[in-house]
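pasting input
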Amino acid sequence: MNDPLFNITYGLFVITASKDGHDNGCIADAFQQLTSLPEQVSLCLNKADYTCELIESTGRFTASIISEDADLELFQTFGFQSGHNVDKFASFGAVRRLPNGTLAVIAGTNSFISVNVEQTIDLGTHLLFIGKVDEKEELNDAPSMTYAYYRKKFLNKH
Ligand SMILES: Cc1cc2nc3c(=O)[nH]c(=O)nc-3n(C[C@H](O)[C@H](O)[C@H](O)COP(=O)(O)O)c2cc1C
């Protein structure tokens, strides 16, 4: 039997942030809509992630919604290495600069949502960011990738 927590359905996102002309991003599942009027969302990131540091100091991020078209390279680029050590965007060009200064990832994704952070809650190992949607756009109608789809496609796990 599975841990019931594994049976919660999650999406997958490239979370991007920028500071002083430097861009970074990581993969996260813990992004979700909280309310619709106004449109508020939350994001939970590990404090060790460089992206978490950038969001904490700038109060802005963009969540690009990963689609089922995404290849393993997207996860390798943004999820398996840290911006503390590498410039992830040096070798990744499928981006669009948004008015809030962050980059949207426009390949292997179907939409992006930019957020202005209004509250940050310290959860010990992680920070929980709560904010309002600033800008959003659908890029195509490819289905969003769930964590379960990722595990099956790339890790061969059910
Ligand atoms: C499928 C997948 C899901 C992930 N979900 C999260 C998450 O929800 N929160 C988080 O803090 N890190 C998550 N990670 C790990 C970060 O993407 C990873 O630690 C990344 O290297 C951090 O990069 P940074 O230090 O440049 O921000 C996930 C990674 C993968 C591959």
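fyi The mean pLDDT is 96.
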